[in-house]
Every structure is written in structure tokens, then in C-alpha cells.
Amino acid sequence: MAKNVEELFALQPVVMKQLQTIFDKHRLAHAYIFDGEKGTGKVDIMQFFVKLMLCEQPMQNVPCETCRNCRRVDSGNHPNIHQIYPEGQFIKIDQIRELIAEMKMMGVEEGRKIYVLHHADRLNIASANMILKFLEEPDGEVTAILLTEQMQSILPTIRSRCQHIKFQKMPRHLLLKHLQDNNISYSMASTVSMMTNELETAMILANDEQFAHARKTVLKLVEAIRQNVHEAMLVVHEEWLPLFKEKGEMEQALDLLLFAYRDIVSIKANPESACTYPDMLQTFKEVALHSTYERLSSQMESILQARSSLQRNMNRTLMMEQLMLNLQEGYTFV
């Protein structure tokens, strides 16, 4: 993942500018919450911010990377930095008690002390209350950084005492680049980048034979729907229903189907649009040419209504048969 400053700026331009401004204006707070989904660069940017706060000779709000402190941050050996991870399901009170004791030790070097709580939403009640007291009464020049993917699970009393740094999802063009750099085809990368914006999850999907089969089946159904309802029904009964037996599999398949029709709408508006299925570009251009926006909108609504029916545990065979009729005619699913 991202390591150098240029990559971090590409990944989180707003966050990086925010942190550099805080440092430049000498407005360091005593506590921050880094809030964002997995894969948004929280750990890399936390490392950058910690290094910036401790660097002996920062240049233009960027750590020098060569001083003793920068090297010790990189090696994980700086005595003023303490990182806490959950033990099992929770961050426990003994971990926080030990952290506070270490932060108060006389042997710690002069200068700012920094502690990082990974998965801060997993503080249990006792440990949350203890860290809250320490947040309220820090001992000297101390900065806390709490990392979380579940901001709402952190106690409001803790949230109110921290500066909130919100991380945005990874931009799709960056995810596409990372996937292609990992030998994923552009077509598959384009599809999985619509299913998730987290690199690790996207890589798993892209290399999953079941997902590749699902993608192929969905596109085969789109082709069948172009022909006639009988061809579509045949694909549904012989391939779709036997493949997508579980509710989650059916949900994913309907999402993939919806993305196909979104592609067609996008192509109708702009033939150069980025697609979920770039390998279907020529076919989708032909469909777009012979479809109206009204019909395409009705078809997408039909898929969304089918997905809603799935949540209500409607018989899946009947649901798919009705969906094929609606997609063929362009009527709204009821």
C-alpha cells in the first residue's frame, strides 16, 4: 500500500492537507480519531503524522526520513510511541493501565509522547472509562491517535474529546491501478472495483473462480434478455438458479446485473464512460442505441424491486421469472 508522501496525498488529499496544516500552525490536539474503512490508508497516514510530530528537521511539513527519530519510528523502536491492539475481542483495562504507567515512566525520552489505539471501537467499558480519564487529564505533552472503522461504536464521551479526522474511500482509479499492478485484468478490475473499494477484498474477489463464474453468468443473462424472454428463462433455470443458491449469492448476482444496466445508461449518455464491464462495451453500445432512458430506468427499478423482494424471502424462482418478464418488457417490478 501507499508509503511515500505522493501516494498518501493521492489516496487521502483532504486528510493529508488537514494534518499538515495542524502541524504547520502549531495546533496539535491531545487526541485524534482516524475514522475510515479498511484500506483507506489510516495506518500509513498515522505513521506519517507520528513521524512528522517527532521529526528533528521536517521540511515543508514533511518528515525528513533520515533523522534519528524518523528512523526509529520506521523501525518501531521509538520509546515515546506506544501502540495498543485488541487482545482477542477487546482492548482490555490491563492494557490501558499498562499503557498509562509506561507513559508516566521517568525513563521515557524528553519530547512528545504518542500512543495509538488500533481498533479503538473495541475498547470494553472498563478500558474505555480508563482511557477517557487519561484523555481528560493527559500527563504532559501527549497525543493520542485512535484508529477505527466503526466510529459509532466509540463512546460519545470519548468522541467529544478527540478531533475527528474522516478518511474517504479509496478513489476508484487508484484501486484499479493497484489491481492491475497485481496482474488483474482491466475488465475484472473494473468489475470488482464496483463491488468494494478495499484492495484486499477486491483482490480476493478478482482471484475467486466462483466470482468469475458469477460475472460470466450475469453477462450471459444480459445477452439472453436482448434476444427474447424464452432465452432469458432458459438461462435463469439452467444456470442462474443452480449457481446462486444462497441468499447472499443471489444478492451479489442482482447487484452485478444492476451494474450492467447502469453501464448501458452511462454509455447512452457518454459512449466513453468508464464501465463495470469494459469487455462488454460494444454490446452495451448496441443495447443503448435501441433503448430509451425511460425503459432503462424501468429495468433498473425492476432489479432493485427484485432485490427488495429477496429480502422479504419471496420464492426465488418466481421472483426471477417475474424479473425476466419485466426486463423484457421494461415494466416496473411489482
UniProtKB/TrEMBL annotation:
<dbReference type="InterPro" id="IPR015199">
    <property type="entry name" value="DNA_pol_III_delta_C"/>
</dbReference>
<dbReference type="GO" id="GO:0003887">
    <property type="term" value="F:DNA-directed DNA polymerase activity"/>
</dbReference>
<feature type="domain" description="DNA polymerase III delta subunit C-terminal">
    <location>
        <begin position="240"/>
        <end position="328"/>
    </location>
</feature>
<keyword id="KW-0235">DNA replication</keyword>
<keyword id="KW-0808">Transferase</keyword>
<dbReference type="Pfam" id="PF13177">
    <property type="entry name" value="DNA_pol3_delta2"/>
</dbReference>
<dbReference type="Pfam" id="PF09115">
    <property type="entry name" value="DNApol3-delta_C"/>
</dbReference>
<keyword id="KW-0548">Nucleotidyltransferase</keyword>
<dbReference type="InterPro" id="IPR027417">
    <property type="entry name" value="P-loop_NTPase"/>
</dbReference>
<dbReference type="InterPro" id="IPR004622">
    <property type="entry name" value="DNA_pol_HolB"/>
</dbReference>
<dbReference type="InterPro" id="IPR050238">
    <property type="entry name" value="DNA_Rep/Repair_Clamp_Loader"/>
</dbReference>
<protein>
    <recommendedName>
        <fullName>DNA polymerase III subunit delta'</fullName>
        <ecNumber>2.7.7.7</ecNumber>
    </recommendedName>
</protein>
<keyword id="KW-0239">DNA-directed DNA polymerase</keyword>
